[in-house]
Amino acid sequence: MVNETKPFWFKRLPALSSHPAVWASHIAQHWNMEAFRPQNPMDPEKVRLALRHFMPELLPEYEALLSVSPDRPGEAQLLAMYNLPPFFSGCSNSISHRLGHPTLIRNYDFSLDGFSGVFRYEPLPDEGWIMGSAEGGWGYLDGLNHHGLAAAITFGGDFTVGNGFSIPLIVRYLLATSATVPEAVERLNSIPHRLVQNISLLDRKGRFSVVYTSPEGVSAADGLICCTNHQRQVQDSAHDEHRTVERFDHLLRMGGAVSPQDFHKEPLYHRKFSKHFGTLYTVEIDPVTETVHYHWPEGQQLLATPASPEAEINIQLSEK
């Protein structure tokens, strides 16, 4: 029976391109990047060419970070998150209309020891910002930018692996470059995807979409209010034991009449921490108020805004 106190941090970092050493220290402190280091690394120049071709806006930050990172085999590929060992999570996402304007609420389901627990604010070179749940060093699992674009991922239910970028860097790319849902969808269509993932998008104008990505291609379901761990069809390889269809149907029936507290109830909330599938946090992302609000079942909360100070919160997570 798992019963553990997990720390979560809200961190404020300076701009990556001008403070790469600070970021390198941040990454070393919070992520076990070795777990994703490729066993047969690609030529670093081929990695750069791939990033330059598909996500050129990230190249200055990437080069700055690489310049202060350890000179180890596969470092260039590791930081570019290209053709890395795969990881699969769970998650449930839904648009909510409870506040009179759309927000994006989601549960992040993963193993206790597999998530760093870092929520982050960072300024961008163009005086913008990104704020959200960090992963893979400089990537994101979900978040919001200064334009009011919100994004959040779920596993897509198929274990197919192809040549492409890992989802945390793709989410960073969307939040660093896109202002609206149509713009983000267009960018997603131009990127090779390593895994099968779903991405919920919401913008300040209230447009929302679920984008189904895979190594085979990308398709968007504009106006779809929710997603769980399958795409248009449930694959035999999907996480059937995690009730993906039941969760999806539940959220679809709710039709946006959901709150963070609803995500702490059956069938959305998971406590299978000993089986590496528990809900680690619930977050509501609000493009209108520019807030990212984290919730846990015992009533603990962490509110992140562009002006929020750094904070640490300890959460009791158990299977009871």
TrEMBL record:
InterPro entries hit by this protein: C45_proenzyme-like, Ntn_hydrolases_N, Peptidase_C45_hydrolase
Residue ranges occupied by any Peptidase C45 hydrolase domain in the UniProt entry? 103-298
What is the protein's given name? Answer: Peptidase C45 hydrolase domain-containing protein
Organism for this UniProt entry: Paenibacillus rhizosphaerae
